[in-house]
Specification:
By secondary structure, the chain is an alpha/beta fold. The chain has 2 domains: 3-242, Aspartate Aminotransferase, domain 2 (3-Layer(aba) Sandwich), CATH 3.40.640; 245-378, Alpha-Beta Complex (Aspartate Aminotransferase, domain 1), CATH 3.90.1150. The chain has helices spanning 3-9, 50-62, 74-82, 99-109, 153-162, 175-178, 213-226, 232-242, 245-264, 283-289, 306-315, 345-350, 367-378; strands at 67-71, 90-94, 115-119, 135-141, 166-170, 188-192, 206-210, 269-273, 296-301, 320-321, 331-333, 358-361. The mean pLDDT is 95. Bound molecules: pyridoxal-5'-phosphate. Pyridoxal-5'-phosphate binds next to helix 3 and helix 4.
Length: 379
């Protein structure tokens, strides 16, 4: 079945009691049993909820995976993955990643005795030198946030396989429309559903998708035991959002290309980070492993001045100055002070995350209006 058809139908069956075409919001905390243990497969809503089940199935199908699990946020989904590990275990992680992921790794899990090595994954072969007997998990994001590097998932998966390590891929920036990490060898795909999957800036949620049955049982056990589950209303909103995911992504890509081109020709702008440019260092890998280049773009000014970037952000009218991304509305963000504020300046500088860097999440409005807004804001 084609992706577009899956986006509209996956996971959603007409409700058996009424025929309702949309899965209802099962706003309940518990389920009545006939006799102790005699029930319809639903005992308590932390453990099971039909609206959540429909969404989990939908996300699994979109990721070409057997199983899906949703969580109260993207970081709650990451939290569940790291809870597979034990004190003394090591994780090799990309060094250019979402600030909140860096924060939960270093500020929470290092305290529990798990070690994280943050490495440049642009050259996958270099990862091997960090593998030792304690290494259990490789964690990567691609495209990376906010530098838009493209990591070769297939190459990293080969290293993970050869050392029997789990490979987790944060697929938030690409969405399942543009990239299928499971098909490239990842064991676990993670999403901040808050972003493109939800798509309408009205829900915070996370998800995991995977094939391995035993791993799924362990993660489902963590989901239920630790309890970071989303409510049914939020699951319903995401089920609705997913139905137009493919259409939205098409426009995000189209607008992204137009805005990236505009920025690259602007005399005051220095670097534009967008994997669709032939000059992008990993353009070839992006072409091979992605179906489009997306609507996420970062750029810096020749003059690396935070105050100047702040003025541009203040001047924007259509682009909302906000954390988050992936919504239908265009958004602009200042990573150094906002989303990536938790990352020390030396670490930021190493990957080129300068003080003047602005990150755009290009929405699905008219591209000419978006470009006009940037033009008036940059001046
Ligand atoms: C937002 C984001 C997260 C965290 O997700 P939340 O839903 O905010 O908890 C993780 N990874 C990436 C790439 C993100 O953009």
């Amino acid at each position: 079945m084609h992706f577009d058809t899956k986006a509209v139908h996956a996971g959603v069956e007409p409700d058996p009691s009424t025929g309702a075409i949309m899965t209802p919001v099962f706003q309940t905390s518990t389920y009545v049993q006939k006799s102790p243990g005699d029930h319809k497969g639903f005992e308590y809503a932390r453990s099971q909820n039909p609206t959540r089940s429909a969404l989990q199935k939908s996300i699994a199908v979109l990721e070409n995976a057997k199983h899906g699990l949703v969580f109260g946020s993207g970081v709650a989904a990451i939290d569940a993955v790291v809870k597979l590990l034990m004190p003394g275990d090591e994780v090799i992680s990309g060094n250019d990643l979402y600030g909140g992921t860096y924060r939960i790794f270093t500020k929470i899990f290092e305290g529990f005795g798990i070690k994280f090595r943050f490495v440049d994954m642009n050259n996958a072969a270099e990862i091997e030198q960090y593998v030792n007997d304690n290494t259990k998990l490789i964690w990567l994001e691609t495209p990376t946030n906010p530098m838009m590097s493209i990591i070769d998932i297939r190459a990293v998966a080969a290293i993970a396989k050869s050392h029997k390590l789990l490979l987790g891929v944060d697929n938030t920036f690409a969405s399942p429309v543009l990239q299928s990490p499971i098909d490239l060898g990842a064991d676990i795909v993670m999403h901040s559903v808050t972003k493109y999957l939800g798509g309408h800036s009205d829900v915070v949620m996370g998800a995991l998708a995977l094939n391995n049955d035993e791993l799924y049982e362990r993660l489902a056990f963590i989901q239920n035991s630790c309890g970071a589950v989303p409510g049914p209303q939020d699951c319903f909103l995401v089920l609705r959002g997913i139905k137009t995911l493919h259409l939205r992504m098409e426009r995000h890509c189209e607008n992204g290309a137009k805005v990236a081109r505009y920025l690259s020709e602007h005399p005051q702008i220095d670097k534009v980070y967008w994997p669709g440019f032939e000059s992008h260092p990993n353009h070839q890998i992006a072409k091979e492993q992605m179906k489009g280049f997306g609507g996420m773009i970062s750029f810096t000014f020749h003059q690396d001045d935070m105050q100047r970037s702040f003025r541009v952000l203040e001047n924007l009218r259509l682009f909302a100055l906000a954390e988050s991304l992936g919504g239908v509305e265009s958004m602009a963000n200042h990573p150094a002070s906002m989303t990536h504020g938790a990352i020390p300046k030396e670490e930021r500088m190493k990957v080129g995350l300068l003080d003047s860097l602005i990150r755009l999440s290009v929405g699905i409005e008219n591209a000419d209006d978006l470009i006009a807004d940037l033009e008036q804001a940059i001046g």
